[in-house]
Design goal:
Helix content is about 70%, strand content about 0%. The protein has about 250 residues and is an all-alpha fold. The protein has one domain. α5 packs across α10. The chain is elongated, with a radius of gyration of 19 Å.
């Protein structure tokens, strides 16, 4: 029992990690792409060279296919997070404080307990395709481990605040792999699509950037579009923070 508790505690983030998750995730991406300094080979370039062969007549096509798949993963991340955010307020999704006073079990939460974090994992895998081999490892495995720690903290707080009802919800609804059919009945909550899309607009920008790169294979395209999307996210975050401090509704 003690060993099980020790292992569970390792997959539970601290309050500091949760409050600063945006910056820690950003640090993960920075470390991943900084890995090009000592591992200059892109992971897709490595895979194509290893399994298709450099100079193959289909080499260019495989590059487009790999990055199209990466764009598809980013699309899934944006769609899943937007669907989840439609049943939450954007200031809750992006708030530095953990909200465990209410359980949302509608929309994607009927199929999956942690759609926001699964979206984050899909995003890190998608962007891993434009990283080096080392960077891909950092994004896919490093950030997935961090997301699992955040999930561990949130679920432990929800279990403490919601009690048996949350434990029953956990028994019915998968943690990371969504079920095709809903596992719990709808509560009748109406989705707020406008605020959800605005709150996750930066992810749709990431998708546009990745899709453009899959077509052009020009890195400056994805970096420009991604930088604009990230600037929108930072602006939105500071806007929410300012309204919160002034006590205004978001």
């Amino acid at each position: 029992m003690l060993e099980r508790e020790r292992k569970l505690s390792m997959l539970r983030a601290t309050d500091f990690e949760f409050r600063n998750r945006f910056w820690l995730i950003g640090l993960g991406y920075l470390l991943a792409f900084s890995a090009y300094r000592y591992d200059p080979l892109n992971v897709v370039e490595f895979l194509v060279d290893r399994f298709i062969g450099s100079g193959s007549p289909h080499e260019g096509l495989w590059f487009h296919l790999f990055f199209a798949f990466a764009a598809f993963l980013v699309f899934l991340a944006a769609a899943l997070r937007t669907w989840a955010a439609a049943y939450l307020q954007s200031d809750v999704v992006h708030d530095e404080s953990l909200h465990a006073e209410k359980l949302v079990a509608d929309g994607p939460y009927r199929h999956l307990r942690n759609p926001l974090y699964v979206g984050g994992i899909l995003l890190s895998i998608g962007f891993g395709f434009i990283a080096s081999r080392t960077g891909f490892f950092i994004l896919v495995f490093g950030l997935t481990y961090f997301f699992l720690r955040l999930i561990g903290l949130e679920e432990s707080r929800l279990a403490a605040s919601q009690g048996e009802s949350y434990r029953e919800y956990c028994r019915l609804v998968p943690k990371l792999w969504p079920s095709w059919s809903p596992r719990v009945p709808s509560s009748g909550m109406a989705p707020q699509w406008r605020q959800a899309f605005i709150g996750e607009i930066f992810l749709w920008g990431f998708f546009v950037g990745m899709a453009a790169f899959a077509v052009t294979l020009k890195l400056h395209v994805i970096w420009i579009i991604t930088a604009v999307a990230l600037a929108l996210y930072i602006f939105r975050s500071f806007s929410l923070f300012g309204k919160k401090r002034c006590g205004q509704p978001s």
